[in-house]
Amino acid sequence: MSRSGQTEAEGNRQSGAGVHDPLAQPRGATPDSPGWTAEEFDVLRCAYIYANYETLTQREVADYLGVSAPTIARRLKEARERGWLLESRAYRPPPHARDMSRYFGDPELQYALASLLASHDVHGRLQRVEVVPLAEDWEQSRDRCANVAARQLEEALRSGEHVLACNWGQTTEAIARALRPATENEELKVVPIFGDLGVNPEDEQFTEAHRYYANQVAGLIAERFGASVPVRLPFKAFIPTSYEDPELGVIKGYLSNDISYQLVFGEKRSQDEPAGYIHRAGTLISGVGALEERNAWFKYTQRVATPAEPPMEPQDLKPMEEAGIVGDIAQHFVTIDGVDAGLPAGLEKVAAMNERVVGLEPKHFQEVARRHVEDKVPGLGVLIVAGGSNKAAVTLAAVRSGAVNHLIVDQELAAAVLALEE
C-alpha cells in the first residue's frame, strides 16, 4: 500500500480564502471563491473517502491522504458535527459542495496501481505512488501533479544540506512554479542535469523552449528556496547530426572535460576531490516522455540552431513503436522492458540519437534511486511526475528500470497502466 504525501489542499490555507481548484493551487494562492474554503475541502475530502470506501480503516484513509491518524479523527469529528458525515457512515455534503467529489480521488485505484507496479519493481526501489484526481484538460492535470510534487519538495528540502538535481521540461518547470516553501534553505544546492537544446533565438518557439531549460528551472527553484545554483551547464544537451563519427566522439570527449560537466557528472577521482553533484544528489525531479510527435524532447531536437538534417522525423515514430520503443527516460529512448533491456536490433537511428545526448543518462536516475534505498540518502530519491494515458508504457519502463522512488501520476495514466496488464 502506497503512502501519499501531504494532502494537496494543505498548502492552500488562507483564513476565509476560497479554492477554485484545490489540487492545482500553490501555497498562498487566493483565487476567487466558488463557495468553500481550503479547511472545508480537507474535512469534506476526508469524510467522502471514509464514507465511500468502507473497506478502508481510519489509518488507511490517513495513509492515502498523507496526514496523521489524529488529523483524520479530528476531521471526521468535525464532519459529523457539521452534519456532513452521519454515524451510519453516509456522506451528506452541503449544497455548495456537492460537485466537489471530482477533486477527492480514488484510493482503490491508487492502491491497485501501487500493487501492480510493485510486482514489476524487481529492484525494490519504488517507495511511494500517488494518483492525482482526473482534471478537465492536460494543463490542469499537469499543474495538479506538479502541485503535489511541490508540497513534497517543500517538506523534504526545508532545512539542511541537500543536492537537488533537476531535469528540463514542462513538468519540472510546472513544479518549480508551484513551489511556495514556508522557509528558505540556504544550504540547498539546486543543480541542472541537462544542458540547453540550442534552439535558434529567432525561432518562434525559442521563448517556450528556453523556459523549460534545466538551467532556467534550477534557477527558479533556487529562487523559491533562497538556495544557490552552484553550476550551470553552458553547452548543448544534444549534438546535432551535422557532426558524425569520429567527430561525435571527439566532441563528447571535449565536453566531458569541461569544468561544468565535471562538477555535475564527474566521478570521484581522489579522496580530496568530491564526486559530481549527480552522485551526491538526494533528490532528482523529472518527467518522462511518450513516443509521439508532441513529445517535447522529440519536438525541440527538430529545431536546433545548427542547420542540419533533423536527428529524427515524424515518419520515424511508427517503426520505433512497432519495434517496441515506448518513450524516453532521461532523454534516452527505451522499450517497455526498461533501460537494462537495451534497444532491439535494427534501430541504429534511435541508438544514434541516444548517443548524441550529452551528460545525462538513465544510469544516473538508477544511481540516485539506488542510493536513496540502499544508502538511506535523505530526500525523495528520484521523483517522477507524469500524466496522460500516452505515458503509461514509459512509466512502467521507468519502474522496471529501477529508476523511480516516488511516482506522481494522474488518474488517466494510472488507469492506462492497469490496462496494460489486461
Structure notes:
The chain has 422 residues and is α/β, with parallel strands linked by helices. The chain contains 16 helices and nine strands. The strands form two sheets. The protein has a six-stranded parallel β-sheet with strand order 1-9-8-4-2-3, with helices on both faces. The two termini are 21 Å apart.
Radius of gyration: 22 Å
Please bin the fraction of helical residues.
25-40%
Percentage beta strand: 5-15%
How are the strands ordered across the major sheet? 1-9-8-4-2-3
Largest sheet: 6 strands, parallel
- H/I helix tally: 16
Along the chain, the helix and strand elements come as HHHHEHEHEHHHHEEHHEEHHEHEH
SS content category = alpha/beta
Overall average pLDDT: 85
